[in-house]
Design brief:
single chain, alpha/beta, nicotinate phosphoribosyltransferase, 2 domains, seven-stranded parallel beta sheet, 12 strands
């Protein structure tokens, strides 16, 4: 069993999206499914231990210190929302799971404003519990710390701005703690902060994040795929008024995104996040997009977040230098670089019920076909309608 220690042991963008959902879509319901891209063979009894871990999450709640942290360091979150979060409790009945031999299935279903917080904790528990139950041998803590120091020194040497994004597929809570403690000591000035609110509070770091694919996927279900990007961006800007201004670009491919990312959006948002496909081609596309609108690319930022490592980051820094600002969201290469093969697991929204009684299947296209999500026939329809 794995026991989470804080309701804030989660990615910041889950809370920023929850805040927006409460404001705009309080009656919406959603369904999420677990996907294992690596076809992991989970050990016998895994789902039983996972259920125990998830059941214990019902006891989590904000502490007075956590409330103070949110009010002081997360000004984009409104006081009424923080009051709501004080009363929020995880409901394990929203999660169902099963195990057939070595295959694991997980489903989350409920009101979107409640169910939205489950994804990252469940993934982190699945990852940590798997390595705990299988007993894979890892490198020593001294080697882990030495590896972090070397990475930090390398990023500082090339002036790469990096953020820790690794909660969902971490080796363990304790290992992520070690990583962030060391980055806090030796990672600056390159190290900017973390997506994990608990560790942001513990180490007085900047919490970083905006929105995820589900924000755009839901808009596709509610308004149709042609209007999804535009209305998702508009609604985000209406809620945050210029704060949290990095737009995720690949839910329906970056080709479609840049088609919808008009001059108004391009000026309002501080930049874009790249999460699939060829990052070098994406950088060139983003630069050309801004230049075509008469916007200086060096006033904007690309946040790269797709399977990054020091070699890839160094190449991207060189490619973008003097052309556009860059930030690198580094996940498992920080939190699960311990000598094991990290799990390739995700939880994605699969259905939405924006209003009324009709459930609608949702779709994610991506710039990498391996990251497509949704019914194959619906995916083909979206590709045809969007001309991608």
């Amino acid at each position: 069993m794995v026991t989470l220690k804080s309701i804030l042991d989660n990615d910041f963008y889950k809370f920023t999206m929850q805040h927006a959902v409460i404001k705009l879509f309080p009656r919406a319901k959603v369904e999420y499914q677990f996907f294992d891209r690596g076809e992991t063979k989970f050990p016998e009894g895994f789902s039983i231990e996972l259920k125990k871990s998830i059941s214990r999450m019902a006891g989590l709640s904000l502490t007075p210190d956590e409330v103070s942290f949110l009010k002081e360091r997360c000004r984009c979150l409104s006081p009424p929302y923080i009051d709501f979060l004080e009363g929020y409790r995880f409901d394990p009945d929203e999660v169902s799971m099963a195990q057939k031999r070595s295959k694991l299935t997980i489903q989350v279903k409920g009101y979107w404003y409640r169910a939205i917080l489950w994804e990252v904790p469940i993934l982190s528990i699945v990852s940590e519990l798997y390595f705990k139950m299988t007993g894979h041998k890892i490198i020593t803590q001294e080697e882990i710390i030495d590896g972090v120091k070397k990475k930090a020194a390398g990023y500082n040497a090339i002036d790469a701005r990096v953020v820790e994004f690794g909660t969902r597929r971490r080796y363990s809570f304790e290992n992520q703690d070690v990583i962030l403690r060391e980055l806090t000591k030796t990672g600056r000035p390159s190290f900017l902060g973390t997506s994990n609110l608990h560790f942001a509070m513990k180490y007085r770091l900047t919490p970083i994040g905006t929105h995820a694919h589900e924000w755009f996927m839901f808009h596709g279900a509610k308004y149709g795929c042609k209007m999804a990007n535009s209305l998702a961006l508009k609604n985000w800007a209406d809620v945050y008024q210029g704060d949290l201004g990095i737009a995720l670009s690949d839910t329906f491919t970056s080709k479609v995104f840049f088609r919808d990312f008009d001059k108004q959006f391009s000026k309002i948002f501080d930049g874009v996040r790249q999460d699939s496909g060829d990052p070098f081609a994406f950088a060139d596309k983003a630069i050309a997009h801004y230049l075509g609108l008469g916007i200086e690319p060096n006033s904007k930022t690309i946040v790269f977040s797709d399977e990054l490592n020091p070699v890839k980051v160094k190449k991207l820094v060189s490619h973008c230098k003097g052309k556009i600002k860059t930030v690198f969201g580094i996940g498992t290469n920080f939190t699960n670089d311990v000598g094991v093969c990290p799990l390739k697991i995700v939880i994605k929204m699969t259905k939405a019920k924006p209003e009324g009684n009709n459930w609608i299947s949702v779709v994610k296209l991506s710039d990498s076909s391996g990251k497509f999500a949704g019914d194959p026939d619906l995916i083909r329809m979206f590709e045809n309608v969007l001309n991608v």
